[in-house]
Write a structure and sequence with these properties.
Blueprint lengths: L1 H21 L4 H8 L1 H4 L7 H6 L9 H4 L3 H10 L12 H13 L2
Length: 105
């Protein structure tokens, strides 16, 4: 009887852990869902967005490339200019998305 209950508890814990892992977002996933609509899927805003927000620079711009991950994190958390803070992200997600943004060319 005890081994049967222990097996059920182990199975339940495994399923809960697997379920939690499947919902974890990577920096790329977060970027795609929260950032790409303005910054573009590859870090280059569309012509329409660039026209609406002329100070929005592509990830390839030298001034953007010079930003540190910490500076990008601060921008995501606090906003900058017309960019509002991005709501609904954990500190870990912000760190991951900032690191991912640095990889865009």
């Amino acid at each position: 009887m005890k081994s049967y209950c222990r097996s059920q508890v182990t199975l339940a814990a495994t399923l809960l852990l697997a379920g939690a892992m499947s919902f974890a977002q990577t920096g790329a996933d977060t970027y795609k869902s929260k950032c790409a609509m303005c910054h573009g899927p590859t870090g280059t805003p569309s012509a329409g967005i660039a026209k609406l927000y002329p100070t929005l620079k592509p990830a390839s711009d030298p001034s953007v490339k010079a930003l540190t991950v910490a500076q990008i994190e601060a921008t995501v958390k606090n906003g900058n200019g017309k960019m509002r803070p991005v709501a609904g992200l954990t500190d870990a997600q912000i760190k991951d998305v900032a690191a991912y943004f640095k990889t865009l060319k």
